[in-house]
Each structure stands twice: as structure tokens, then as C-alpha cells.
Amino acid sequence: EVVARGWKKSFNKGEREETKSESLQETLAFPVRAYEKYNGFLGILGYDSHTKEPIFCSKSSIDTEFARNFERIFRESHNEVLPKLIETMIESNVCFAFEVIDPINDPHIIEYNHEHVVLLDVIERNIVFKNWNYERLCEFARSNKLLYKHLAKTFDNWGALKTFINEVDVYVDGDIEGYMIEDSNNFAFKLKSPYYSKWKMLRGMLQNMSKG
Q1: pLDDT over 70 (residue 197)
Q2: Cβ neighbours, 10 Å, residue 24
Q3: Which of 2, 97, 176, 185 is at a distance of 20 to 30 A from 130, taking alpha carbons?
Q4: What are residue 36's phi and psi, to 5 degrees?
């Protein structure tokens, strides 16, 4: 039984051969969507039919500080809708992927002023990847008073997407980390803002110097 699952790992634009502009132009399936990327950690809410209990997971474990913080934040803010989510996981055989924002215990480069979770995806609990479309996700989130990922733009061709990428490359505001770009075949890559990339690099340098 698959109790919870996420996505295939995605990479930054230009980080791998398949995310370089030349490859993207040839392989992306349009329409392509750009979603705002949140600067937290991944929390996946799954279900175990043996124990009849929800499973709160981090990216790699069900028993880490991240998983425990995810459960705490979720229960403190959305415990009243947990029975509905459990019902949906049982009936539709799905799990829920969230971005977990924890500025107290897990601060990131992008600053947030309170703990919260953002629904990123609803994924079938199967080996083969299949998820709900964005419109269905939005409807479910709104009906259960959940925050959900923001769709920034939709692109019908490479020219429009390339213009957007060029605009982001000179984006200097510090409000967001960047964007997740997803095509119609569920291929995704990350588009980081220059602000985020610069400060992530500087943070890494500081950490290296602190270690000598």
C-alpha cells in the first residue's frame, strides 16, 4: 500500500541538460503554467488503512522534526477539516502535498510572519504518478478553507514563456523565491528569482566560512 507520495525531483532552469533552454524549447508540452514557489519545506499528508490514521510526512521520513512540526502546524490551523481530508484520502485514494511555512523553527531566505501551510497538489496514492488538475485542487481547497498554490501565468507557446523567463531573470524583489514551471505532461522545473539565488549563495559562503 502507498500511504503517501510526492513528485519526481525537479531541478532549476539550466541545472541539468533537460532544463536548459534548448531542451525546454524542444520538449515542453504546452500549455505551460507558472506557479508561485513558496520558501518552506514539503509536508505530505497520507493515510494508513491498517492503523486507520493519517500519516504526516516530511520529504524523506514520517519520524523527523520536520514531520512533527508539519503535524503540529496543520492541527493548530486546520484540525477541524482533517476528518474531511481523511475521508477524501480513503474515497479517492489520494494524499495531500503541502508547503509548510515555519518561520520560527525553520526560517528561510524569504521571510514570513506566521506559521501556515499551502496546498500544492493532490496526488493519487499509487506507484504511477497521477494528480488532480489545478481547477479541481482549487475547488477542494476553497471548500475546505485551505490556502493553495497561486497560478501566476499560463503560456501557450515557447515565445511567451521565454519572455517571462527573461523578465524573472531581472526580477529583484524579495517577496518570493521564484516559480515552479509545469507543462501539460507534468514535467516541472524551478525558476528562481535573482534575489533568492544571490542570498542562497551568500548564505552558503557564510556557512562554509563558519566551518573553517
Answers
A1: no
A2: 21
A3: 176
A4: -60, 135
